[in-house]
Amino acid sequence: MERVGPNVSQTKQVKQLDRVIIRFAGDSGDGMQLTGDRFTQESAVFGNDLVTLPNFPAEIRAPQGTIPGVSSFQIHFADHDILTAGDRPDVLVAMNPAALKANLGDLPRGATIIVDTHDFTKRNLDKAGYSSNPLDKLGEVDDILAGFQVQPVDLTGITVEAVKEFGLSRKDAARAKNMFALGLLSWMYGRPTEPTITFLERKFAKVADILGANIAAFKAGWNYGETTETFVVQYEIKPAKMPSGTYRNITGNLALSYGLVAAGVRSNLPVFLGSYPITPASDILHELSKHKAFGVTTLQAEDEIAGIGAAIGASFAGQLAITTTSGPGIALKSEAIGLAVMTELPLVVVNVQRGGPSTGLPTKTEQADLLQAMYGRNGEAPVPIVAPQSPGDCFAAAVEAARIAITYRTPVFLLSDGYLANGSEPWAIPSVEDLPVIDANFATEPNKTVTNAKGEQDTEFWPYLRDEATYARPWAVPGTPGLEHRIGGLEKGEGHGNISYDPANHDKMVRIRQEKIQRIADSLPPLEVDDPSGQAKVLVIGWGSTYGPIGAACRRVRRAGYDVAQVHLRHLNPFPKDLGEILKSYDKVLVPEMNLGQLSKMLRAEYLVDAQGYNHVYGLPLKAAELAEAIGALVGETEGREVNLGEHGLNLPADHEEAPNA
Q1: Separation of alpha carbons 204 and 201, rounded Å
Q2: Could you report the per-residue pLDDT of 225-255, keeping only the tens digit for each?
Q3: CB neighbour burial string for 372-392, b if at least 16 within 10 angstroms, e if fewer
């Protein structure tokens, strides 16, 4: 394939690949998140399937040049359906010694490392803990980079030279090095350049010099790959075959926000968000604040409790009420969630889970708030729990959480996590008409005939009379003539809703509220069990963002010739009605989770099955290759034979994801 660069014409070899994992890493001020995001958008436009994993420090400005200050962005893109951001990068772009050291252990032998030599100074090497410059020892006995394809490039120096005409200071000029790196990687993998140039023109429209410098650096990176002898191979990953439809790349927080807006449209209710900013949920507040045209009102409250208090008030007033937070915020909101349980008002409580306990790991992912959502309130206060499985699925999960909240008059937990919130994937944009209609079914007239003191028949509104099918109480908008009523946090008398301290009534109301949650299971579709052969003896069950690693691991096990089944839970309270029968159909049940075994505890308690946990709490997604080995070992134990996932001449890379029909 021949291309013409700015100065030279050179023939470059083009090599076909089916998938690639690239990680951009540098100081938290090097623009790695922007670089990764732009490469992602280019790949989305090209038509690849992709999954991303942003990873950044919790500090606003972590110590420059140190390992704790390293920010990275990983993208896995392919010509077939993939499920994870990949376990180990094929390519690492390291902007400084700390970025190299922090990520080197994740690379497989043979991986390509592109290093910005400019920042490999003694001062930066000392900060990263290097006693000597590893780039000076390439090919020597003590070469720690032996086995990797190392490409040292003075990214900063070339960038400064490329943008000299714009008259920027050296410091400002050097900031464009991330665009040089993006241009180089865009050339290496044949990414379209127009989306990035259009993005830069829009972002820096009012700052001509900065705009010119960034575009010049981006083009210089492309031309460097095109013309230099350092890079002689260009790689091609063809577009993935996707079901027909209109797609866009979307993050979990954005999809969740759109889902809440869509739920407002389909329920014909105004949307109210009462929230307090917290990582990694703040983007939902930012996004929803843009959609006043869809009847969305957002309140950035002074604290977590005020946020949910305002949301409960909005729900009482007849709006689709939402509050968003992470685990520490849920702890603060717990009494108010109990109030919503007692008053039986619709409320969507979004918990974008992060590492804990306490402040924990604000920018790292975890799914350790399941038991908090299940039991983290005083008294018997059952709350439905819904969990999305991928960034795009956050949209459908948000609509489902709103449906349950409105239909059954209850707060609902929506458990996302940091991986889903910040990660992205292609998402098929649904038609609004295909989304479920959510009927608020407001009370409009009195619902109870009573005999007054004079012996005459009269009508009243009783706020705790119930629908026979759902056990939902009527929802009356304040100001509706004849439906005046009051509610609060004290126990209700059944039906009339007046305060009651009667022991028998309390027992009855506790059981009614529990029964209402259990009746949600009647509206849930049957679980889909992925068991291609129908011969599997091992079932892998998960929830939330473990869907990707579990699916990729099961594909690998099946590719090696072994049988394994997979089922994934969206509804965690109540469980689907057919779950017990499914669990009892398999000899072994494995439950991978990013916690110490919370779902497995619930399954053991509910169904008395020997659910075995696979538990890692690293602040990172589970690794598909390691999980595949654990699944293989359990299959071997069940079938009484040794399992070798590398047999049958496969020799797949440890993190390779086969297409589902491979």
Answers
A1: 6
A2: 999 988 989 999 999 999 999 999 999 999 9
A3: bbbebbeeebbbbbbbbbbbb
253 and 394 in contact (C-beta within 8 Å)?
A: yes
In this prediction, residue 655 carries a pLDDT of 55
Strands 9-11 and 13-16: unpaired
Angle between helices 177-188 and 32-46 (to 10 degrees): 30
Q: What is the mean pLDDT of residues 317-336?
A: 98
Sign of CA dihedral 264, 267, 270, 276: negative
CA distance 100 to 127: 12
Assess contact for 40 and 249: CB atoms under 8 A.
Answer: yes
Residue 206: Cβ-neighbour burial (10 angstroms; 0-12, 13-18, 19+): exposed
How far from chain centre, in Å, is Cα 83?
12
Share of the chain above pLDDT 70, in %: 96
Amino acid of residue 178:
N
Mean of the pLDDT values across residues 10-27?
92
Query: What letter does residue 240 receive in the DSSP assignment?
Result: P
Cα end-to-end span (Å), the chain: 30
Secondary structure (3-state) at 300: strand
**315-329, 392-406, 469-483, 644-658: segment of lowest average pLDDT:** 644-658
> What integer best gives the mean pLDDT of the chain?
94
At residue 326, what is the residue type? S
Task: Return the closest-CA partner of residue 491 out of 512, 466, 461, 519.
Answer: 512
Is residue 328 within 8 A of residue 303, CB to CB? The reply is no
Helix (H) or strand (E) holding 266: helix 252-267
103: closest CA among 25, 30, 27? Answer: 25
- Sign for the CA dihedral angle at 84, 355, 96, 157 comes to positive
